[in-house]
Amino acid sequence: MSSLNKQTVAVVGAGVVGICSALELQRAGYQVTLFDKTPPGERASYGNAGFLARQLISPLAENMSVFSAIKMWISPNSPLSLPPSQLINLATWLVRFMRQTSKKNIEVSRGAINSLNELSVGAWERLLNDIDGLHFLRKPGFLLLWKSKNTIEDVISQRDMMQRYGIKCELINSAKIRELEPELDQQLSHALYFEDAYQVSDPYKLCQALFSKFIERGGVFAQQEVASIKQQGEVIFLTALKETIFDKAIICVGAWSKKLVSGLGLSVPLVAERGYHVDFEKNGLNIKHLIASAENRFFVSPLESAIRVVGISELGGLKLRAIKSRFTLLKNQSAGIIPKLRSSAHKSLWMGHRSTLPDSLPVIDRHPVHPNIMLAFGHQHLGLTQAAITAEILVNMMQNEKTPIDTKPYSATRF
Ligand SMILES: Cc1cc2nc3c(=O)[nH]c(=O)nc-3n(C[C@H](O)[C@H](O)[C@H](O)COP(=O)(O)OP(=O)(O)OC[C@H]3O[C@@H](n4cnc5c(N)ncnc54)[C@H](O)[C@@H]3O)c2cc1C
Predict the structure, then answer these.
(1) Which residues are paired to 245 by β-bridges?
(2) CA atoms of 345 and 111, how far apart (whole Å)
(3) Contact criterion met (CB below 8 Å) for 288 and 140
(4) Which position among 45, 69, 173, 252 has the lowest Cβ density within 10 Å, counted as fewest Cβ atoms?
(5) Whole-prediction pTM value?
(6) What would the CATH number be for the domain defined by 59-99+138-199+270-356?
(7) How high is the mean pLDDT of the chain?
(8) Beta strand pairing status for 198-200 and 137-138?
(9) pLDDT single digits (tens) 170-186
(10) Alpha-carbon separation of residue 3 from 26, 28, 31, 132, 204 (angstroms)
(11) Minimal CA–CA distance to 136: which of 391, 395, 384?
(12) How far apart are CA 363 and CA 377, in angstroms?
């Protein structure tokens, strides 16, 4: 750890992106204060599937037309949901999202997601090694499942696309699926099998371990809501319970970022894309792999203490309460591929807010006018996957070092 740099940095937001960034800054010798209105890791970073989803490189807009998107978002049994009360708030975002459905824009987003994802597991290995946390990392493999036999041509083209991006996968039949995962339904037709898929054993415990190390290394945590940040001259003025001065700041408040950055003159089309989880008791259930239904867009993750089913993409904003029928949908659909879940008790139900931009890319950038303020939000479905590499890139940028990839696609002014 470098002790030469004694500059102070405020990291606003103690989700997985903020905590990883705080640790990375400490490694570079900065004195870091982490701000969050709630205890660390209790928002989106709490209830995700724990999947280091290097393989998921498709933006949300992929395979959508204007009509299919609207149909899916308003249908009650769809994995996509758009509560009618949100329609007016979201009109501009939806227009931008529809523009992203073009072939050219899909390619751009996919390439830029892939660039981050390719480096994601390596970055996590470095970070976990640094905090003696490699025991959190597992390599269970990932099965992406299809029930319908008619989909085989699409699956082959998906496999070929993955391979073009350097992602190893194998097309397997129902007998091989059962051999790998005997608890799965007999009716499944085929799957893509990704042997090299990683996860963390428990995303919330991981956040707690990262946070403990940050405190052990001299980091300061302020449980306070940050009302505003501004840079005057070289100095950052941060207003929470009181005004405090820092040399630099990073804003990584996930789905809440829009308001804080608008105070800095930036307009970003960020929405809160709500997702849900149902945790099942593990009793008698022996699921070994990460599993997803391609047709119904949900995931099953074997965590340390539960079988977690996650899914739903609901453009419901920050204020609406969780909608009960979404949990029922996840329970029914997951029981459709793992029959034993039908008689399993659930341990907990949860809804969280992903921060999502229309092109499914995060913002990882320096503020265009206030160079001592860095921005890192909009990681949508991949914030856990991309947190460690985002933290490395941010610190490179802050120190005017070369970044491992071109960061133009993640610019804050691309909209
Ligand atoms: C159901 C579901 C499943 C998912 N599964 C996966 C997965 O398997 N793999 C994966 O890579 N990703 C997954 N994700 C996405 C991932 O969880 C998120 O992208 C990631 O947690 C975002 O981290 P974050 O630090 O940006 O945001 P958050 O964890 O939401 O943290 C933001 C923090 O900012 C704080 N904050 C907000 N406003 C202020 C303020 N004004 N002042 C101070 N603090 C403030 C909040 O309290 C919060 O703690 C999933 C998401 C959901 C919802």
Answers:
(1) 237
(2) 41
(3) yes
(4) 173
(5) 0.96
(6) 3.30.9.10
(7) 94
(8) antiparallel
(9) 999 999 999 999 999 99
(10) 9, 8, 10, 21, 30
(11) 384
(12) 5
Going from the Cα of 129 to the center of ligand 1, the distance in angstroms, rounded, reads: 23
Q: Is the CB of 390 under 6 A from ligand 1?
A: no
Q: Would the CB of 362 count as within 6 Å of ligand 1?
A: no
| 411 contacts 365 by C-beta, under 8 angstroms | yes
Residue among 81, 256, 290 to mutate when testing ligand 1 (max atoms within 8 A of CB): 256
* Cβ-contact 390, 21 below 8 angstroms: yes
Token couple for 112? 């830029």
- 89 pLDDT tier (thresholds 50, 70, 90): confident
With 50 as the cut, is the pLDDT of residue 1 above it? Answer: no
Euclidean distance between the first and the last CA atom of the chain, given in angstroms as a whole number:
37
What lies within 8 Å, CB to CB, of 79 at 6+ separation is: 72, 296, 297, 298, 311, 312, 313, 329
Angle (CA) 354 290 62, round 5°: 50
The Å distance, Cα 17 to ligand 1 centre, comes to 8
Q: Pull the structure tokens for residue 268.
A: 């970003």
Cβ of 250 less than 6 Å from ligand 1: no
